[in-house]
Amino acid sequence: MHRITYFTLTILCSYNVAAADNKIIGYGYSDAVLPAKNQELFYMGFEVGFDSILGKDAAKKYVQVEKVADGSQMGADTAAMKLISNKNIVALVGFPTSHEALLAARLAKENKIISLTAGSGHSALADFGPMVFSTGESMSLSVKIMIEFIKKNFEMDTGLVISNPDAVFSKNQETVIKKITTEEVRYKLNLEYASLSSTQQLSDKYINMLKTGKIKYIVLTSYPDESAKIMDQLEQTKVDLPIITNSSWNAGDIEYIRRFITKRKSPFYSATPWSKLSKAWQTFEKNVIKFYGRKSTSEMGYGYDVGVAIATVMKRVTEPRTRENMLKAFQSNVCFDNTSAGRLCFDANGGHSDRRIHMVKFTKNDFVEVEQ
């Protein structure tokens, strides 16, 4: 009896070690910027994309997930370091927001492991070199498309760019807008700039400016879930002007501010990296419905593309799958098919994907494409 029990335990322990050794892709995130429920949507998309390349339950077999959901500003650093310290992990993925991605990128570079983040657009990600990539579009590309839309529809008007000084993504976008509109003649616009206070609202000075008629439209650079207070302030002060914002509004928790948007008479526009009428998006959506029995979201789209790309890299690598070999396999062909946006390519020197950006208009049910 004792021998049988001992033998059984030995088999179980050996199985668990083998199972742990299979975990070679490290997926991490924190809730410092986006709430955990949105972070889970990114991972759900990742799982669908990963399995679409490597087969059913591949993510369960190969992916180790580390999440820090205590609101800590350094949560992504903690999650990334835990994954990197596991020598079996050969690629670091996830970390969707710019705040998380920058923390993970620094550690990836220091530890010579490829990092592929899910949709982060901060400009500085391109400065970490050929180990750090993002499925998101670059900030400069997104801003240029937004500016072209503004020039077509509001060229002679003055706009107000509103940024959050405490938010990495928002401040980066403001910096890029200033740089492009002052240094490139064809992108020149009439813009004023305002920073939100510590209470996430505008001072009376800017509210009065909005109400006098001098300002004809607003450029909002913050994430949707960080914009509830400013949207509430605009409603309370009866400021109803067209709003143009970034692609995070297609991949953030818009439910926080949906009621403010639906009450507005003026249009609400956003940049987006997807065309939901495209064959690529429709294929992605069918895969999500088949996998989870629910409709897809934009968060899932960014995650899906990471899953497709990193699983494709795994297929390219002959044994052993090391950190060095994974990086070489990624750089051997920096284009990936079958993503939610079709064919997605990267610069071999690191940075963002070359997504095509569209402009969309918010309706009560969805975002619909507008002519650019």
Keywords:
372 residues; alpha/beta; Rossmann fold; 2 domains; 7-stranded mixed β-sheet; 6-stranded parallel β-sheet; 13 helices; disordered N terminus
Task: Walk me through this protein's architecture.
By secondary structure, the chain is α/β, with parallel strands linked by helices. The chain has 13 helices and 15 strands. The N and C termini lie far apart (76 Å).
Helix-strand layout with pairing:
Elements lengths: L1 H21 L2 E6 L5 H19 L3 H5 E6 L6 H10 L6 E4 L3 H14 L2 E4 L14 E6 L1 H16 L3 E6 L4 H16 L6 E6 L8 H9 L2 E6 L7 H9 L6 E3 L12 H6 L4 E5 L6 H14 L5 H19 L6 H10 L2 E5 L2 E4 L5 E3 L4 E5 L4 E3 L3
Parallel strand pairs: 1-2, 1-3, 3-4, 4-5, 5-13, 6-7, 6-8, 8-9, 9-10
Antiparallel strand pairs: 10-14, 11-12, 14-15
Brief sketch in words of this structure:
With 372 residues, the protein is of the alpha/beta class.
Low-confidence stretches: 1-19
Number of helices: 13
Please identify, by name, the CATH architecture of the largest domain.
3-Layer(aba) Sandwich
Task: Estimate what percentage of residues fall within beta strands.
Answer: 15-25%
Q: Alpha-carbon distance between the termini?
A: 76 Å
The total tally of domains equals 2
Strand order of the biggest β-sheet: 7-6-8-9-10-14-15
Considering DSSP H and I runs of 4 or more, what fraction of the residues is helical? 40-55%
CATH superfamily of the largest domain: Response regulator
Total number of beta strands: 15
Largest sheet: 7 strands, mixed
Order of helices and strands: HEHHEHEHEEHEHEHEHEHEHHHEEEEE
